Amino acid sequence: MSGRGRSAAAAPADHRRPPVLALGGLLVIHSDDQGRTARFDFTTLPGPTPFRQSLARLFAARCAPAGTWRSVKTSKGAWWAIRPFTQFLDAHEDAPQDVGDLTAGFWNAWRLSLAPRAFDYTKHSRVAGLLQQDPRLPHAVREAMAKRFVWSARGERAYRPEEFRAIRSAARRTFRPALQRIRENTRRLEEWRAGAVGHGTPQWLLGEALDVLARTGNVPLKPLKSGGMRAVFRYRAVLGGTGSLHTWRRLYLSRKEAAALGVLIAAEFGFNATTICELAVPTVVPDSGPAAGLIYRLSLEKRRRSGRGRFESRNVADMGADSAGRLLSEALEATAPARTALSPRAEADRLLVWHETTPHDGQNYPGEIRIGPFGFGTDERATKDWGRSVGLPGSPMRRLRKTVNVLYRREPGQNSQDTHDRVYVLPEPQVQEAAIPVIADGAVDAWQSARRTVFQARITQQPDWNHQSATCGCVDYTNSPFGLPGQSCTASFLMCTACPNARVTPAHHARLAHLHQALGSLRGALEPAVWDADWAEAHARLSDLGQRLGDAVWSAALAEVTAADRARIDQLLKGDFDL
């Protein structure tokens, strides 16, 4: 299993460039720390021009190095939330012309136009968060924005155990053959480079082709008249063909195989898809090794957080087959040839690196980073393609994250405890089903505990008993609920306060108050476990009696304790009192 010790990770250097404002303050160009750039043209949005200019300035501030939007993916999500707001502005003749003109009534009207669902809640919260940066925003509008947006969080359900196991098995069936293929061809390449293969033999030709593949990302190719490329003829026989499985896939993962690896990581750690896509190569903790087991340190970043808590590290141990650390070891082994081919490029520090099946030129993969034939991470499109290839309706990543964090890890996965409980745990049907017997057992335990700790004897003013016990009176000494019918009671004197046959009159108050005080004094002289086992329930029942009688009566009773009462209680506690 993984060692989940966590510590704050050092924040990486911020290489983001300040956003560019152009076209009269209506064009924002955002460059993130992943090297991606996006253009947001506010001239294409409807609504009053001053309001759009203000939105653009606020938008640019969020994209700045000091802002909270570190990823182009985040700024694009905000952009699509702003558009419906500007459309709402444009549809009203009396719409506010700028942020300072916005009223609580207009904001409430915008809010009521949104459906009670998660998507519209996101639009509401993103526009509100943007506008709240402007000091001109009226206080009444800020108060209106602070009101809770009620929406139904149906969301994705966690997978059932059998579904979860089936998805993991399918991902293994995709990734493990790829790992074995890369492992075998890496061994052949190392033998060739070490000179352990005879020159001119088929094995030598294969090693030469693998060497070119390891250095360039492709086996030796020659151009075709059609404009394409094909493996050089002299290597085709030893390669076994010209398809991807016989050429570049000998050393590199395909996009679909990398997606399967991402699914395995999600199923093991409960990370979201963005975290897995941007996961850096884990480092090995010093002093760990094959003898004691490798311990990897994962550096994680929660992009939606700012300040403290944004960066963390997690230690994961490779303790053998089926451990979380073993999955990391296999991921590193399967992607090492790709990082070697990319070295010394900075992008090679990504854990998930794969080789494209066909050239990226002309394909619509917005936001993806490509270097030559290599791609990085795994996006929703890739996991969706993998999911459909194994019979799933789409990408399993979101449901896997919920399944792992709610049903297996049972702790927040880069979320606050409140978000984990409110968004992930409470709406989950499996959690609700599992909670029914737990709640029932808890109710029974609470009822039984209450019976043990609540005073059960009857409080009276006049004696009505036929037997005097050590602490109070008793109306039926031979029919105790703690013994056999018709036989004398043999229960401890401490159980009298839990017996409905017992009677307590004002004559007993002083003795019982002193007993309560004596039991409390024993708490400081005994081990907690011993006191809890022997005296806690009796002390709780006497505390309940004191509350029923009231503080004034209980304090007066303590003042009336006699020497005889002290002697009797002392004998009772020592166990040498004889009726």
Detailed description of the structure:
This protein is of the alpha+beta class and 579 residues long. Helices cover 47% and strands 9% of the residues. It is built from 20 helices and 16 strands. It has helices at 49-63, 72-90, 104-112, 118-131, 139-146, 161-193, 202-216, 233-239, 255-269, 273-277, 324-342, 380-389, 397-408, 417-425, 429-453, 506-523, 528-534, 536-549, 551-559, 563-574; strands at residues 6-7, 20-22, 27-31, 37-41, 221-223, 229-231, 283-284, 295-301, 311-317, 353-355, 370-371, 374-376, 458-459, 467-468, 473-474, 502-504. The protein has a 4-stranded antiparallel β-sheet with strand order 1-9-8-7. Strands 13-16-15-14 form a 4-stranded mixed β-sheet. A 3-stranded antiparallel β-sheet has the order 2-3-4, covered by helices on one side. A hairpin with a 4-residue loop joins strand 14 and strand 15. Helix 1 (49-63) runs antiparallel to helix 2.
Number of E strands: 16
Structural class: alpha+beta
Mean pLDDT: 82
Number of helices: 20
Percentage of helical residues?
40-55%
How would you characterize the largest beta sheet? 4 strands, antiparallel
**So what's the overall shape?**
flat
Distance between the termini: 61 Å
Q: How much is the radius of gyration in Å?
A: 36 Å
Please indicate the percent range of residues in DSSP E strands (runs of 2 or more). 5-15%
Spatial sequence of strands, sheet with the most strands: 1-9-8-7
Weakly predicted, low-confidence segments: 1-14
